[in-house]
Amino acid sequence: MDMIANWLGNTPDFAVPFALAALGLILTERAGVLALGAEGQMLVGALAAIGAQLAYGSHGVSLLLAMGAAAVVSLLFALMVLVLRINQVIAGLALVFFCQGLTGLLGTLLDWTNKPVKGLAAVELWPLSELPLLGKLFVQNPLVFMTPLIVLAVVWFLTRTTTGLRLRAVGENPQAADAAGISVLGYRLVAILAGAALIGLAGGYISLLSTKLWIADMTGGRGWIAVALVIFARWSPWKALAGALLFGCIEALIPQLAAAGVRLPQYFVLMTPYAVTLAVMIWVASGKYSTGNQPGALGIPFIREERR
Amino acid sequence: MSNLNAIQLSGVSKSFDGFMALSQADFTARWGEVHALLGENGAGKSSLMNIAAGLYAPESGSLLINDNAVRLSGPRDASRYHIGMVHQHFKLVKPFTVAENIQLALPEGPGNHAFSGSHRQRLAALEQRISDKAAELGFSIDPRKITESLSVAEQQRVEILKVLLAGARILILDEPTAVLTDGEAERLLETVRAFARQGAAVILVTHKMSDVKRFADRVTVMRGGRTIQTLDPQTVSVPELVRLTVGESAPASEYQPAIPGEVRLQVRDLRSTGAGGQGVLNGVNLSLRAGEIYGIAGVGGNGQSELANVLMGLPEPCDGTLELTGFGDLRRASAEQRRELRIAAIPADRYGAALAGELSVAENFGVGQVHSGRYGSFFRLRRKRLEAEAAEAVAGFDVQGVRSLKQKAALLSGGNAQKLVIAREFSRDPQLVLVHSPSRGLDVRATAAVHARLRAAREAGAAVLVISEDLDEVLALADRIGVMSGGRIVAEFDRPADRQAIGSAMVSHDEPGHAEPVAEGASHE
Amino acid sequence: MNEQVRPVMLEQVSQAAKQPKPPLLSRRYALEIRQQLAWHWQAVIIGLALLLGLGISAAILVAAGVPAGELLNEFVVLTVFDAQSLKAVLFQASPMILVGLAGCMAFRAKFWNLGLEGQMIWGAIGATAISLFEVGPPALRLPLMLAAAISCGLAWALAPVVLKLRLKVNEIISTLMLNYLAINFLLHLLYGSWKDPRSSFPYSPQFQPFERLPELFDGISAAVPLAVVVALLALWFLGISRAGLYLRFVDANPRVAGAVGVPVQKMIIGTVLISGAMAGIAGFLVTAGQEGRLTQSFYQGYGFSGILIAFLARNNPVAALVVALLMAMLFVAGRSLQVFYQIPFSMVQLIQAILVICVASSDFFIRHRIRRVQGGES
To answer: How far does B15 lie from chain A, in Å, by closest CA?
Structure first.
């Protein structure tokens, strides 16, 4: 039973990056921009967080810088996709490789690799932390507790503000939004930046609060899994949170099983997140699970097309 | 009705990639009137109004609002000048509620800024305004309903409410009754007429004579991108209006009477439903006979494209059968089989369904025959032979502008591209020829050449079907004419056909089989 | 008619009409799509883009500590004019050519094959299995390894393409996930049952001499002619065979292709499988050619390289040969930069990404024309 308690206690740590990244992707994709660059933006956030921490020692500042760095990098993506109208898939892939190369380079040149940093002290939510079995769930670092609030904020923004309404309109039917006088490109730009900030925060979480150091390519495909997660969650923030918890559970299970002495081939166990993602994609596509809710204009570049 | 001009467009020209959509067009609407803008598809009515609504920018000409010269930078700008347009294809966000859709269009202002006051509160206030306005106009609508769940007529009312609540005083409606039943159309037009009587200017873009006669105070006729005439609909007869809209009959070319043979293709009861009721097939029945050209006339948007897709074997879900004599249901045939059966298809969308623009002229010509081994085995494509035959075909079918057979097909002008498609399709001496809008975008010479080919096919004994929105073309080519309206053939005429009768059948909503020639001076309900 | 409403309304509209608009907004720029640009102009634009990309890369290299004067030396002189380096470049070029061709193939079927690394890995695993289990007589060993590499690479590409055609599963995610699965399986083998017992490093036992690609004349490995042969086969497939024409139709316009009788599904599946097979061969080349054993990171950098080569070469196999050669030069130069100037190898990846971005951006100027449009002036 101790194992279960530990397992539950560790789950949020794995779930948070998925949740934050998925939120960022949802913001961008709800505006109609296919955001495949998540893996790259995550890496940038991760590196920036470690670098800032090594330089300034303040977790708050580091995380903010992580968000900022990812947003700055996403300007390149915005340029490619909004101004130059490059195919969004190509632009996303190019961004990922750009960020992988950039972070690998800077991580080594600036000597930030493999330098451990101090994490954030866990916060106990008393009296919930005294619960049997579930207790450890309430002893987490502050960002974990903030994550549901962030989800709430994004949901509130999308469904209860006029700006959120306009953003969704831009993603569903940019021609209608344009005819209504809404700046399609303006909203998409802000969506890209905001989404990137959240994805950068996810990356910062992984490097600063979870692993507590930087190694090249440390996100290990989590950005791509987040992309699949958003499809699975039908672009709904709460469903994405649920999916993130699911993946967090799976990832948290791995060390627990090893510690419990269950002997599984190590690398097969490591395959689990990717295999589950693939299985989920197949299940979603097989139609038993409708992908209604896909933003109507996702992936299509917008020009006020003058047709005959 | 006043004598003050609300909006005036003068000398407006607009081209799209070389095609002149508008050529020195003029249009004026006064305060307090319902002004109809009448013309066939392609006449330029929508383009002109899109300019008035700020969606397109004209290349020349001027726009005056209340006699002040104005330049519109976009739809928001037009909205500032109290111009509102209800488009033919609604600009609604389907998953949103009615209130949310209207909220989008409301200009920023005190009480409507993104962060002042709660969104929910503003939506609630808006919902109230919507209900009030709707009641004022004489209908009811639930502002909380999801737009997708509304009927087409209701969605249109949302569009109207949207522009009215955004403060429109110059209201432009683009083909509003095209998607409505007669009863719904009646109510709509009465509503907008009442709005005009309150002092607003209402512009009604339409091709329906009955609407013009009953509701318009003035009508401006457009044709071929030009303004033809502005007149009072009460002083002109429907036949006269028809004449102005479709133009004089072109001089008939030499005609040999057809010797129709056996029935080659029997189209039985094609039915399909699209979203919202537009472009639906409502039980199309017709038969194509060998040695005869059957022309389908009608205003665009009445199911012609869908019918063409079904006939040509393009993906188009629908019920019904196509009985090909000696084969069975044509719908079950593969592309390979269609070629074996010598069926030629010339679709309207040349570069979307017939030619691959990025590939060479020779390749586009030969691809149909490649599988049969005519140009070599799997291992080696005999390009020389392909190119030789392509060259022959290019010469034989007078495809011009081909400097090299290797050049991209996309570089061919419209007429020559069409000739290339014909060259390919006719290379196996077809027994059934299906053509959709053959002379769209073609000049007079190319059109004549294409028509000559179609006649030649007829002479050779093929059954030919021509679907076209150009009434001149149908009249020139067809031995029998079917008029398509509302997704079915509503009338059939034999040659020589009465142009006026056909024109009336095209714009009427009569029951099938009841297209009557219209007497002089009678108003047409 | 409501006389009171009318003057008020007119007043409102007149007011709006009289306000002057700032001159900046009085012109609009219309983005027009070009029909066609002559190929030499396209080449000029792409060339300029490449130069820009190379310039940016050079600037970054200088900022990273490489003396500017040395750049030309490193990249051009040493890689081409030095015999030793030239051999290294050619050797490196062989798997590059193969992944580049693999990329070209898949893209021509409009299939984003990001699984090149996974397919390489399986190709290498297949070849290594033949060696470890000593399948076949020594004389046939090498061809059997090649055959195994082809089969395994091909098989690993089967699932994504079928999933895409049948269920519309996005192939970007599916191929990437399969990559990760392949990588982990490789590690499982290398740390597990296939580990070389004579060492603590995660690699397989060394191949026997007859299981390695021989060196032909003058120290040039057999990998080079093998790559050239595959390139010629690709050229045949795309340029001479009937399938090439079909594929061009599928690539240009699947709808028209279907309408004129091209077997679209078969073409797509076949082409993607060929792509996987080529990547498998690349895995074989690196393992049996360069390394001589199955190692844990031999595939790194090839996945993206393959895509980049295909992208820069516009899916043309001849151009892919040339670009692959240049990419090999980049790799070799990158390694020497690593040794002499301590610049990490991710620099190469960065340069590759910059080149892709520049060339992709140049496409904008090829496809569009910007026109100034007046807003209704009389």
So the answer is: 9
